[in-house]
Amino acid sequence: MKAVLDDSKPIFQQIHEMIEDDIIEGELQEGDQIPSTTEISKFYQVNRATAQKGLTVLVEEGYAYKQRGLGIFVSKDARSKLLEKRKNEFRKQYIKPMLEESKRLDMGLDEVIKFLKEDNND
Q: Can you tell me the distance from the alpha carbon of 9 to that of 39, in angstroms, rounded to the nearest whole number?
């Protein structure tokens, strides 16, 4: 998890997304225990309820599960499901608007791909 929270989004959402990032990047793997509400609240100096809300979202979305008395753990296939979710968000946030703009500029798909390949080599 990153060490600093900011004002860009609600804190619980940032906590939720940081744990998602840890799962995607392999820092947390299937079956690993996720830091507790207490650990998160102390680390970020936030209310325990805020930390709990971030963890609850992970459980509700199926990326984590609770084991009574033991804590919250990373669910089976959480990484692959998160990758699929993030790819779809990437497509919606970046690819579709880029293609819409390329149409306005009368650019063909081949030209867009050429630019992507050129910029990928930088």
A: 21
